[in-house]
Structures are given as structure tokens and as C-alpha cells.
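Case study 2.
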Amino acid sequence: MTVSEGAVIRVLVSRKSRSDRRDRGRGRSRAVVVTAREPLTILSSAFVRGGFTTARAIVNLHVRKNIPEAETDGLLPRFADRRGIRGPWVGLLTSAWTEKAVVAEATAFG
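Prediction:
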């Protein structure tokens, strides 16, 4: 990804909240969210808003392995709404656990 001059990108791990009752695996990370102060131009294979687009956030949401496609409808928008993630954003689903992700912030030029 090419980052615009002065862009600040932040990666954060979103832990499960009480509203995520249907999820299993206490204490495990629910999602990895990458955010930027300003929308970035990106090329993404994201499940929601993939393609050549702009996004202020990239949401990688954990789901159980072999989840039926019918159960994925609306998961990402509901998650983004509950967490107050500013749009525009793109969203991916992963069955890989994200508990080793860390909070980090970087400023890049060019």
C-alpha cells in the first residue's frame, strides 16, 4: 500500500463485548481494525466494498470456521456500527484467530 504524505495509520484489536454473546472463545480477539485519519485509496479483495476504492478503515472480523454464507449477511456492518468505526471502510471475514495482533500507530510520508 502506498501511504499519502502525513497519513497516520492505526491498527487496533477489538475485543469481544457483551453484545457479542453468540461468539465462542472468551478473551479472544474479535477483529483487527486498521484505521487512517483520512480515506486512503486501496485495492482490496474485501468481502464488503472490495475492489479499487477508498477507505478510512479496514475491518478483519473473526468468524467461526465453515460459517454458512447465509449467516455472514450483515455481520460486518453491525460490527462497524457497534464499534463506531467511521466510514468509508472495507470488511473481511477470517476464521484465523487474531489474538496475537497488537495495537500500533505509524506515520508515513510518501
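Helices lie at 69-72, 75-83.
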